[in-house]
Write a structure and sequence with these properties.
By secondary structure, the protein is an all-beta fold. 0% of the residues lie in helices and 50% in strands.
């Protein structure tokens, strides 16, 4: 199970940190990713981090503004989002995957960037 939190209304230029709490599977063996879905758009990749936490990748649209991280001791993953713009408004989803096992998705958390 994955449970996201931290989404809220924030002004343009502001920052938020999203959290993803994992349970029920061996967290350290799963790659964790964040996706987002804006109104009337498809779900898009945002960032990913490997099980050890040393490998990360970002979508071009968030590179340099967002940082993904994880704490395997706490079964937690995070997405630090800085310099937010209205285009970042979306429901943000946490995703976990590992070879030969079903993917795990969270329920999502709403991020709204507006003045």
């Amino acid at each position: 199970q994955l449970v996201e939190s931290g989404g809220e209304l924030v002004q343009p230029g502001g920052s938020l940190r999203l959290s993803c709490a994992a349970s029920g599977f061996p967290f350290e063996y799963y790659t964790i990713s964040w996706f987002r879905q804006a109104p009337e758009k498809g779900r898009e990749f945002v960032a990913t981090i490997n099980g050890g936490g040393w490998g990360t990748k970002y979508a071009d649209s968030v590179k340099g503004r967002f940082t993904i991280s994880r704490d395997n001791a706490k079964n937690m993953a995070y997405l630090q989002m800085n310099n937010l713009t209205p285009e970042d408004t979306a429901v943000y989803y946490c995703h976990a995957n590992s070879a030969d096992t079903p993917d795990v998705w969270g329920q999502g958390t709403q991020v709204t960037v507006s003045s």
